[in-house]
């Protein structure tokens, strides 16, 4: 059974420019997005910054009214039944905002429990359990302003679970966390799925989506460009190899020239510390290396490797291919 | 019944949370205690030739300025604070009525600002040595109760504009002194041009100031003060009834215009 049904969802924002002659234009953030999420499924919405992930989540959590299309959660429409729906969903937006910093973690949870009509006796029992779950027991009486970023993020999770929602929206929950904090949070998300919660997770970390999600929708420029299991998405690039070359200060015209080659499917560039890594997707495999080096003539090159494609490469192909 | 009990709990917690947050905010303490004392001191100086009876007028008037300033800046700005905290969205996305939450917050601000009146009383009576007597203490206390109701309901309406317009905080700066003047907090509105009188009559703080001044100085009859109560009650009920529809419309518009997560200035 589908817990979330999204049909042709659309959302525009007004943007203005100029002071004297002010021009107002409509910017489309989400355009014709459709997907279904099964009950108990952990579903990923993957996309670059500005792709429409957060806008989609805000429409599903009743914070934004769509300009078109429809969405229902547990059979309730996100616009018409917004008030009724709110008791059944929980959400976490990435970052540190969304909490009262001058209050303690415990006071934050007490307040939000009352906002979700959680009975005070139930809240008294549930709050210590959630503090234990997110590893904040013993620190709950301290002001939130003294918490680390990871602690605040874990408090967000406890807040979202106070009313034991059936559906959870996690919008980039590991954003800004250190590797240990992010790993702990991913474990917590896995545990939530084991408790049969339906979860929509947005992220731009490929490995996170790969490790956690049963299915992934890749969104770019407000449109779903692929929707499948991580394995199937990877299959889309199985016919290709990726040649990685370390370069130092590659001019844009080199990349443009490479993109025009008939043996090149996709090109991406990633900065890693002092070096840039040029990734070329090609069906030629290792045979492409001499020709690639020839195309980079005049540049200082470092290590060159050929490897199998990953989910990230599938993502780059999907997202890059539409640009 | 269960719903009413839960809403009351939300309102009381919103009240408690707002109180506790305000007590750690220096600007709030300034608005409640320091600014009314400055106003009281200046008013006493301006009115010193009018005789000792004016001292109680100044206590009540400067207390009213504290009430209004706190309501205007802290009541409304508490919504701006929610924006800055990033908690406005979680509040709106919760099943609780935002109107109930805002009511609790505004009530906390108005209750705290009663400290303005106590501060002015202590300054004028103990430090400056003016003899202060409330001519009709019972009527004064009841008037104070109606004043709180009138200001909280007015604040409920005011706060809704902070939800809809992220930059509304800047606009309210212009409302502080006109209300002091139009509502007769520190001098009678009879000193103003005649055309401003109907505007004063439409503002519930005017009737609050009239009842409080009248009860404190004994310058109004019981019937006249009861008339002020009736008007304050009528305004309060009208504002509360209007706020139900207003909040529904404003929240829908804020969700349609995507203004809930805009920080504003």
* First-last Cα distance of chain A: 35 Å
Mean of pLDDT of chain A: 88
Largest sheet of chain A: 6 strands, mixed
Please give the largest β-sheet of chain B. Answer: none
Strand order of the largest sheet of chain A: 6-7-8-3-9-10
Which parts of chain A are unreliable, with pLDDT below 50 for 5 consecutive residues or more?
Answer: none
Radius of gyration of chain A, whole Å = 23 Å
Oligomer class: heterodimer
Description:
- By secondary structure, chain A is an alpha/beta fold.
- In chain A, 33% of the residues lie in helices and 32% in strands.
- In chain A, α3 packs across α4.
- The relative contact order of chain A is 0.13.
- The model of chain A has no long low-confidence stretch (mean pLDDT 88).
- Chain B is an all-alpha fold and 265 residues long.
- Chain B contains eleven helices and no strands.
- Classes of the chains: A alpha/beta (323), B mainly alpha (265).
- Chains A and B meet through α3 of A and α1, α4 and α11 of B.
Descriptors for this entry?
heterodimer, A: 323 residues, alpha/beta, Alpha-Beta Plaits, six-stranded mixed beta sheet, four-stranded antiparallel beta sheet, 32% strand, globular, B: 265 residues, 11 helices
Task: Give a summary of the structure in a few sentences.
The complex is a heterodimer of chains A (323) and B (265). Chain A is 33% helix and 32% strand.
């Amino acid at each position: 059974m589908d817990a979330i049904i999204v049909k042709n969802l659309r959302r525009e924002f007004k943007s203005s420019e100029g002071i004297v002659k002010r021009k107002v234009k409509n910017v489309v953030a989400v355009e014709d997005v459709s997907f279904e999420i099964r009950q108990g499924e952990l579903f990923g919405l993957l996309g670059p910054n500005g792709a429409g992930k957060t806008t989609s989540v805000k429409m599903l959590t009743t914070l934004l009214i769509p300009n078109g299309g429809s969405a229902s959660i547990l059979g309730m429409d996100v616009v018409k039944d917004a008030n009724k729906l709110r008791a059944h969903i929980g959400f976490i937006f990435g970052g540190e905002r969304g909490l009262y910093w001058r209050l303690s973690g415990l006071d934050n949870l007490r307040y939000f429990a009352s906002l979700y009509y959680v009975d005070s006796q139930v809240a008294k029992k549930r709050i210590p359990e959630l503090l234990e779950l997110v590893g904040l027991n013993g620190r709950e009486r301290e002001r939130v302003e003294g918490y680390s970023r990871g602690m605040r993020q874990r408090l967000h999770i406890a807040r979202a679970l106070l009313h034991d929602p059936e559906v959870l929206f996690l919008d980039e929950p590991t954003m800004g966390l250190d590797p240990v904090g992010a790993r702990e949070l991913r474990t917590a998300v896995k545990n939530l799925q084991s408790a049969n919660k339906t979860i929509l997770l947005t992220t731009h970390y490929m490995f996170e989506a790969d490790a956690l999600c049963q299915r992934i929708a890749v969104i770019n420029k407000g449109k779903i460009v692929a929707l499948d299991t991580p394995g199937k998405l990877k299959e889309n690039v199985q016919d290709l190899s990726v040649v990685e070359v370390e370069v130092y200060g590659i001019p844009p015209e080199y990349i443009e020239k490479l993109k025009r080659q008939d043996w090149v499917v996709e090109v991406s560039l990633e900065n890693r510390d002092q070096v840039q890594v040029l990734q070329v997707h090609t069906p030629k495999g290792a045979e492409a290396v001499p020709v690639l080096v020839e195309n980079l003539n005049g540049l200082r090159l470092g290590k060159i490797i050929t490897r199998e494609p990953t989910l990230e490469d599938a993502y780059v192909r999907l997202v890059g291919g539409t640009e | 019944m269960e719903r009413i009990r839960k809403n009351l709990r939300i309102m009381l917690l919103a009240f408690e949370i707002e109180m506790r947050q305000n007590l750690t905010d220096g600007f709030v303490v300034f608005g409640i205690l320091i600014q009314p004392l400055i106003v009281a001191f200046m008013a006493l100086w301006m009115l010193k030739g009018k005789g000792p009876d004016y001292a109680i007028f100044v206590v009540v008037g400067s207390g009213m300025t504290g009430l209004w300033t706190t309501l205007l800046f802290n009541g409304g700005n508490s919504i701006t604070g929610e924006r800055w905290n990033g908690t406005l969205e979680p509040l709106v996305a919760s099943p609780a009525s935002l109107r109930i939450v805002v009511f609790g917050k505004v009530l906390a601000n108005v209750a705290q600002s009663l400290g303005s009146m106590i501060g002015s009383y202590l300054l004028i009576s103990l430090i400056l040595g003016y003899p202060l007597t409330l001519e009709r203490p019972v009527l004064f206390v009841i008037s104070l109760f109606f004043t709180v109701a009138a200001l909280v309901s007015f604040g409920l309406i005011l706060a809704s504009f902070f939800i809809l317009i992220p930059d509304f905080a800047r606009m309210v700066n212009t409302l502080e002194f006109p209300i002091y003047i139009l509502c007769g907090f520190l001098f009678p509105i009879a000193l103003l041009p005649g055309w401003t009188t109907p505007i004063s009559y439409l503002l519930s703080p005017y009737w609050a100031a009239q009842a409080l001044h009248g009860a404190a100085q004994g310058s109004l009859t019981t019937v006249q003060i009861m008339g002020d109560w009736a008007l304050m009650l009528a305004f309060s009920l009208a504002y509360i009834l209007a706020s139900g529809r207003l909040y529904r419309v404003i929240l829908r518009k804020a969700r349609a215009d995507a203004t809930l997560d805009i920080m504003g200035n």
